[in-house]
Amino acid sequence: MGCQLQDCADHKMGLPISKLKGWIIEQEINPFVDQWEAAGQFPAHKIFKILGSAGFLGVNKPIGQCESVPQRVCAVCLAEYGGLGLDFSYSVAVSEELGNIRCGGIPMAIGVQTDMATPALARFGSPELKKEFLVPTIMGDKVSCLGVSEVGAGSDVASIMTKAVRKGDEYVINGGKMWTTNGTQADWMCLLANTSDGPPHKNKSLICLPMSLPGIHITRKIDKMGMRSSDTAEVFFDDVRVPCKNIIGQEGMGFTYQMLQFQEERLWGVANILTMMDNIIQDTIQYTRQRKIFKQAVLHHQYVHFRLAELHTEVELLRSLLYRATGLYIKGNDVTKLASMAKLKAGRLAREVGDSCLQYWGGMGFTNDVLVSRFYR
């Protein structure tokens, strides 16, 4: 089969971002967001297949080689892994564009697929694991989730209690995971579990866990204040058996691998919220131009004008921090500190932007008819 895509170098000149926004977001996602928000779930397999077919789920993942023309990227040939082989800055660009989706839950779910459940697999996984789990995830044929947080261990990852005990050629898994994004629809989980009784930072491993195995129970779909269209599950494991070959990289290195995954997760999340904040501020500017109080547009009251300018400035400062951290990361630097700073600032600024802008919408801001209300939640 001949190659049907351009040379890899051509792809590195830029991703078809206009296709992502103009077609996928505006035609396949945004018209249905209200419906999915009300239902508490969006059709992950359908949307991920659209994104995967367009190349947006494996932007910085390993490329496949065209059989007929060496050194060419080819999604339709017998690709080895199916990614585009670009650096992480391209993932940041995609994340920013996904911020145009008119809710937070769907972009978050996509981020789990691209930059939260798969970085360690792409970097440390065996060729067999990549072919079984990474390739179909990049192509959108499988939905992934990340199993780290537990009822008693969220931010304190070292305190997880889920165990995977080796018995022959298998691990037997018992325990549970909480706040599992994509959990009710996922085909496989990147699971962090204790595989020995050693020190808490050296006794954990990441395991590719098919969600169809006996003993895996979705105990409930969590009803959340926000991120409504993203399904979030509590998962329970009862003597789940998985082959030892499903371990990612080395046994006992799971904590380290997960901390590395968190770098990309944090940067991706910051990039995604930047565009959302930009849109909320712009929506608020447009609305306050039309809404009048004391015989003049709300925007023309000096305090409102200054406050919106201040918020916009804060967003741009955060963008600069993100780009600095990303630039260092793609050069091979450890950006744990900067990525953590960016995530901290993004979380606080998102709340500040949401609350401040909501005030200028008056009574409309208290309804579900406007995006700022959803953003606030």
TrEMBL record:
<dbReference type="InterPro" id="IPR046373">
    <property type="entry name" value="Acyl-CoA_Oxase/DH_mid-dom_sf"/>
</dbReference>
<feature type="domain" description="Acyl-CoA dehydrogenase/oxidase C-terminal">
    <location>
        <begin position="252"/>
        <end position="377"/>
    </location>
</feature>
<protein>
    <recommendedName>
        <fullName>Acyl-CoA dehydrogenase 6</fullName>
    </recommendedName>
</protein>
<dbReference type="InterPro" id="IPR006089">
    <property type="entry name" value="Acyl-CoA_DH_CS"/>
</dbReference>
<keyword id="KW-0809">Transit peptide</keyword>
<dbReference type="GO" id="GO:0033539">
    <property type="term" value="P:fatty acid beta-oxidation using acyl-CoA dehydrogenase"/>
</dbReference>
<feature type="domain" description="Acyl-CoA dehydrogenase/oxidase N-terminal">
    <location>
        <begin position="25"/>
        <end position="140"/>
    </location>
</feature>
<comment type="pathway">
    <text>Lipid metabolism; mitochondrial fatty acid beta-oxidation.</text>
</comment>
<dbReference type="InterPro" id="IPR013786">
    <property type="entry name" value="AcylCoA_DH/ox_N"/>
</dbReference>
<dbReference type="InterPro" id="IPR037069">
    <property type="entry name" value="AcylCoA_DH/ox_N_sf"/>
</dbReference>
<dbReference type="InterPro" id="IPR050741">
    <property type="entry name" value="Acyl-CoA_dehydrogenase"/>
</dbReference>
<feature type="domain" description="Acyl-CoA oxidase/dehydrogenase middle">
    <location>
        <begin position="145"/>
        <end position="240"/>
    </location>
</feature>
<dbReference type="Pfam" id="PF02770">
    <property type="entry name" value="Acyl-CoA_dh_M"/>
</dbReference>
<dbReference type="Pfam" id="PF00441">
    <property type="entry name" value="Acyl-CoA_dh_1"/>
</dbReference>
<dbReference type="GO" id="GO:0005737">
    <property type="term" value="C:cytoplasm"/>
</dbReference>
<dbReference type="Pfam" id="PF02771">
    <property type="entry name" value="Acyl-CoA_dh_N"/>
</dbReference>
<dbReference type="InterPro" id="IPR009075">
    <property type="entry name" value="AcylCo_DH/oxidase_C"/>
</dbReference>
<keyword id="KW-0276">Fatty acid metabolism</keyword>
<keyword id="KW-0274">FAD</keyword>
<dbReference type="InterPro" id="IPR009100">
    <property type="entry name" value="AcylCoA_DH/oxidase_NM_dom_sf"/>
</dbReference>
<keyword id="KW-0443">Lipid metabolism</keyword>
<dbReference type="InterPro" id="IPR036250">
    <property type="entry name" value="AcylCo_DH-like_C"/>
</dbReference>
<dbReference type="GO" id="GO:0003995">
    <property type="term" value="F:acyl-CoA dehydrogenase activity"/>
</dbReference>
<comment type="similarity">
    <text>Belongs to the acyl-CoA dehydrogenase family.</text>
</comment>
<keyword id="KW-0560">Oxidoreductase</keyword>
<dbReference type="InterPro" id="IPR006091">
    <property type="entry name" value="Acyl-CoA_Oxase/DH_mid-dom"/>
</dbReference>
<keyword id="KW-0285">Flavoprotein</keyword>
<dbReference type="GO" id="GO:0050660">
    <property type="term" value="F:flavin adenine dinucleotide binding"/>
</dbReference>
